[in-house]
Amino acid sequence: MNSTGTLVRDTFSTAFAKNFILIGVWISLSYINISMVATFFSNHIFYEDPRYILFIHMVINDAVQLTVTVTLFIVSYIYYTINVSVCCVIILVAVFTTRNTPINLAGMAVERYIAICEPLRHTQICTVRRTYILIGFIWFICIVPDITDLFITLSTESISFFHSSIMCMRQNVFKEPVLLYKRQAFDAIYFSLVFLTLIYTYLKILFAARAISTEKTSVRKARKTILLHGVQLLMCMLSYISPSVEVMLNIIFPGRILEIRYANYLIVYIMPRFLGPIIYGARDQKFCKYLKRYFIIVQCKSSTRVHRQDEDD
Fold first, then answer.
1. CB 75 within 8 A of CB 94
2. Checking CA distances to 210, which of 51, 118, 219, 227 falls within 20 to 30 Å?
3. CA–CA distance, 193 with 206 (Å, rounded to integer)
4. pTM (predicted TM-score)
5. Which of 94, 253, 269, 108 is nearest to 168 (CA)?
6. Residue 8: pLDDT over 80
7. Beta-strand (E) ranges in the chain?
8. Which residue has the higher pLDDT, 284 or 200?
9. Cβ neighbour number for residue 84 with a 10 Å cutoff
10. What is the pLDDT of residue 309?
11. Conformational region of residue 3, where left means phi above 0, alpha means psi within -120 to 50, and beta covers everything else
12. SS3 content of the chain, % helix, strand, coil (to 5)
């Protein structure tokens, strides 16, 4: 629907192109995520490191978020409307996992701050047990604000509403005006806290890196890592303001709501998921070493399987 309530749909070629690109991105990211999860669980050395525990939690969370949102995007083109009860579950999972990533990154920023600025206390503060407690706390603060939307909707809508079919969008399911204001208030709070955490920890890490480093290359690498962390976190934080931005862009560019939503989805929900593997996979020497070993093992197993099949033939 556009701003006037008129139904707007893509042409077949446009819809096919959008979904083809999206499926290609999903397959690529899923392959990367599965490889990283397999690398983590295949090497016990990562089990005792809070940094990698938080990282793999983010990878799994992003994989779920990506799968759910891509499925919803494709289903919206095939069926247009789906059952409200099913839509509720999909929307809530998408919201929980989307909100989870910026907060998880903020936790990783704090862990890096302690490791660099308080190295002697790092092993005492950042224990495995406390890391799992932090993950539980992250999920708690992600779920509680939005699960109340479901309870309010259950109390205000009739049973028949949950048996009906609608276009699966958050504002179509959770329609109470008070929910919009509540959502904006919580988004502002999360945005402020995560942004302040980002600024404080990354500036501290940058100054510490300059102070303790004797080689220019190490300072430059630390600065690039911090910059990539900041870009990823800021891109994830766009999810807090993307609904408002979408409304503004629709006013500026009327009649382009479908293009605006597609671009918004790619920039806010897809692109940040590419940066995580780059920062913690390709650029992290320790993890990259084991990741390469995993690919070598998989390649060797594939070659052995093909060789045995040739011998059988």
1. no
2. 51
3. 20
4. 0.81
5. 94
6. no
7. 82-83, 165-166
8. 200
9. 19
10. 44
11. alpha
12. 85, 0, 15
In degrees rounded to 5, what are phi and psi of residue 82?
-135, 170
Backbone φ and ψ for 83, nearest 5 degrees, come out as -60, 140
Query: Is there a contact between 231 and 276 (Cβ–Cβ < 8 Å)?
Result: no
As a whole number of angstroms, the distance between CA 246 and CA 254 comes to 11
What CATH superfamily classification does 12-282 receive?
Answer: Rhodopsin 7-helix transmembrane proteins (1.20.1070.10)
User: pLDDT tens-digit profile of 66-121?
Assistant: 899 888 888 877 777 888 888 899 889 988 998 888 888 888 888 888 887 888 88
> In the chain, what's the furthest Cα-to-Cα distance?
69
Tell me the C-alpha to C-alpha distance, in Å, between residue 145 and each of 34, 100, 181, 186: 30, 12, 12, 7
Taking residue 156's Cβ as centre, other Cβ atoms within 10 Å add up to 13
Joined together, the tokens standing for residue 65 give: 């978020």
Q: What is the pLDDT of residue 270?
A: 79
The pLDDT, as a whole number, for residue 134 is 94
DSSP 3-state of 83:
strand
Spatial separation of the C-alpha atoms in residues 235 and 231, rounded to whole Å: 6
CA–chain centroid gap for 45, Å, is 25
